[in-house]
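for the recovery benchmark. tokens below, seq after
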């Protein structure tokens, strides 16, 4: 993936926070993985503190001295120096100094990319993925830990991804790190029977990561493309390695690629949200669709059908339709019917209700929403009310539609979504007054 980090002469101090955020997403997992291999997984919190301090120093110094020509290498060297400070301060780490020093040996004559051998980085990141998803760590804690350590997600970001409280996520992270220490989990890629169970946790974490980028839970931007690309990069890394080269991995990677291909058309030139039927399909990324279809074909090996296979199949149906009207909705519904057998979450059921409405009309859509199990879990989910508002509007029930759009607007946090909902609400209110 090409970097958008500016050179010193291009980056005024006001842009420093943006550059650091970019690096935070791209370099956090790499730095944490490398230093964890050196210090040991039992010292994960110490490693995170070192990397966090390096990024904080960038924020403190770059506004005055400018963004370095190679900001990634700057942060790597700062992390190395901070790690050496720890080594020299704590006797228990004295034997780590030669390995930490080796990380930047020869940097004056070699390009920055040579400071960290790529194969070594890949293995370290894969080890970290599998550590986060060790069976000794409670399942509900695994994805939260992976999102924190591999991708630098904050506690609020993780809490939104899980639709839970920040306090609950903080507790999960503390509990996960305690499990690592208590179980003396090894920093390694598993083999044999142990691999299968832990691979599921890794894939779930990557899936959550991609979803947060594809439809951000808060902030100014609906889509955070860099997070999507990072999830795709990690999934591709996993699929290329013998430990992760499984049909399910290829299915997840296909799902990510096929959905990402539509990103360029999800907003118009003014940042307004475009629904699927409003998107210019000629601007969908055909190269990405081709890659997605390749991995979708790779996922057909074996007999297992996972939720990733079914979701990738749904995405493939959308990508195959040259226009919205030619979408194979019955095929998509059959895939949702199978998906809900594997994942009966209310969010999946809500998406299925939208498909039903496309086939049988808005009244059938309302009935499908009413039949959702654990519908109360969606009480704070703005899309529930947006969907209900859309169905009621199609039935010309403008007052009911306005109530739902008003509730959805109260819950939505993304600027483009709020603008879209405001327009829908205004249109319904105008109909009521007419």
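predicted aa per position
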């Amino acid at each position: 993936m090409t970097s958008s980090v500016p050179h010193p002469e291009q980056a005024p101090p006001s842009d420093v926070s943006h550059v650091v955020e970019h690096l935070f997403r791209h370099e956090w997992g790499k730095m944490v993985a490398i230093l964890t291999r050196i210090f040991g997984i039992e010292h994960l919190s110490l490693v995170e503190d070192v990397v966090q301090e390096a990024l904080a120093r960038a924020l403190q110094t770059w506004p005055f001295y400018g963004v370095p020509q190679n900001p990634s290498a700057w942060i790597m060297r700062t992390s190395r120096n901070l790690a050496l400070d720890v080594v020299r301060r704590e006797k228990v780490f004295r034997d780590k100094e030669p390995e930490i020093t080796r990380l930047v040996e020869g940097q004056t004559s070699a390009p920055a990319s040579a400071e960290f051998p790529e194969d070594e980085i890949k293995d370290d990141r894969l080890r970290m993925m599998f550590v986060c998803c060790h069976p000794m760590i409670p399942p509900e804690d695994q994805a939260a830990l992976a999102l924190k350590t591999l991708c630098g997600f904050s506690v609020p970001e993780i809490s939104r991804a899980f639709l839970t409280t920040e306090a609950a996520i903080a507790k999960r992270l503390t509990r996960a790190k305690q499990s690592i220490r208590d179980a003396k989990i090894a920093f390694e890629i598993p083999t044999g029977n142990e691999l299968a169970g832990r691979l599921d946790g890794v894939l779930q974490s990557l899936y959550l990561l991609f979803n947060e980028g594809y439809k951000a839970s808060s902030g100014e931007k609906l889509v955070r493309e860099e997070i999507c690309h990072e999830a795709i990069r990690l999934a591709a890394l996993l699929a290329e390695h013998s430990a992760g080269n499984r049909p399910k991995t290829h299915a997840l990677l296909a799902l990510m690629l096929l959905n990402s291909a539509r990103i360029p058309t999800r907003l118009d030139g003014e940042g307004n949200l475009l629904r699927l039927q409003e998107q210019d399909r000629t601007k969908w990324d055909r190269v990405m669709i081709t890659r997605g279809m390749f991995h979708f074909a790779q996922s057909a090996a074996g007999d297992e059908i996972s939720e990733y296979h079914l979701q990738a199949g749904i995405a493939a149906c959308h990508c195959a339709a040259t226009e919205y009207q030619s979408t194979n909705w019955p095929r998509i519904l059959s895939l949702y019917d199978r998906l809900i057998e594997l994942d009966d979450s209310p969010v999946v059921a809500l998406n299925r209700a939208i498909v039903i409405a496309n086939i049988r009309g808005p009244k059938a859509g309302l009935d499908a929403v009413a039949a959702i199990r654990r519908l109360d879990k969606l009480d704070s989910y703005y899309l529930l009310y947006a969907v209900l508002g859309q169905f009621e509007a199609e039935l010309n029930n403008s007052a009911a539609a306005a109530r739902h759009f008003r509730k959805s607007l109260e819950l939505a946090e993304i600027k483009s979504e709020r603008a879209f909902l405001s327009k829908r609400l205004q249109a319904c209110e105008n109909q009521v007054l007419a």
